Amino acid sequence: MSIFEYNGSALVAMVGKNCFAIASDRRLGVQLQTIATDFQRIYKIHDRLFLGLSGLATDAQTLYQRLVFRHKLYQLREERDMKPETFASLVSAVLYEKRFGPYFCQPVIAGLGEEDKPFICTMDSIGAKELAKDFVVAGTASESLYGACEAMFKPDMEAEELFETISQALLSSVDRDCLSGWGGHVYVITPTEVKERILKGRMD
């Protein structure tokens, strides 16, 4: 088993019309043994920028703390929040710095940039960025997430339709992966509000 699959995870971010959604499962496991069913994989950097971390849970928490520290330094120096594109470059640099002993994480970055344009991207454990205009996925359920998102995604969805689409894609995908599941955690971000919802899924 790959170290990336040790804790199991499912992460997906999707863009809509001047909005985006990011969702994850809630299971924390040690291989096939479930440890917790309310584990947080999505972190708020500021109101318009969210970070999802799949992979080894301990590395994800360490990396998150380092990134929050770097973002707070930026806020103090620049007196403004980081743009999503800038934050993606920061994450990439932090990961590449540790390329000879990497964090076993695959980050998903989602945010609203200038003129409320949604930005999403993912990267591998040494910071090679992969940008997308529709959706990005990460984690042990990523193969089934690709299939579900390809089938369900359509451009320029409004916030409610986007929530429904990402939720259905997540729930149907984690049913096909025994290392992730136990419900879902969804954030839908528009220029004016942040909606957070918990999904109930199969508990087996």
From TrEMBL:
SUPFAM superfamilies reported for this sequence: N-terminal nucleophile aminohydrolases (Ntn hydrolases)
Pfam families referenced in this protein's UniProt entry, alphabetically: Proteasome
Chief subcellular location: cytoplasm
Keywords: Cytoplasm, Nucleus, Proteasome
Lineage top rank: taxon: Eukaryota
InterPro entries assigned: Ntn_hydrolases_N, Proteasome_beta_3, Proteasome_bsu_CS, Proteasome_sua/b, Proteasome_suB-type
Subcellular location: Cytoplasm; Nucleus
Keyword Disulfide bond recorded: no
Assembly description: Component of the 20S core complex of the 26S proteasome. The 26S proteasome is composed of a core protease (CP), known as the 20S proteasome, capped at one or both ends by the 19S regulatory particle (RP/PA700). The 20S proteasome core is composed of 28 subunits that are arranged in four stacked rings, resulting in a barrel-shaped structure. The two end rings are each formed by seven alpha subunits, and the two central rings are each formed by seven beta subunits. The catalytic chamber with the active sites is on the inside of the barrel. Component of the proteasome complex.
Role: Non-catalytic component of the proteasome, a multicatalytic proteinase complex which is characterized by its ability to cleave peptides with Arg, Phe, Tyr, Leu, and Glu adjacent to the leaving group at neutral or slightly basic pH. The proteasome has an ATP-dependent proteolytic activity. Component of the proteasome, a multicatalytic proteinase complex which is characterized by its ability to cleave peptides with Arg, Phe, Tyr, Leu, and Glu adjacent to the leaving group at neutral or slightly basic pH. The proteasome has an ATP-dependent proteolytic activity.
Protein name: Proteasome subunit beta
The organism of origin for this protein: Juglans regia (English walnut)
Lineage: Eukaryota, Viridiplantae, Streptophyta, Embryophyta, Tracheophyta
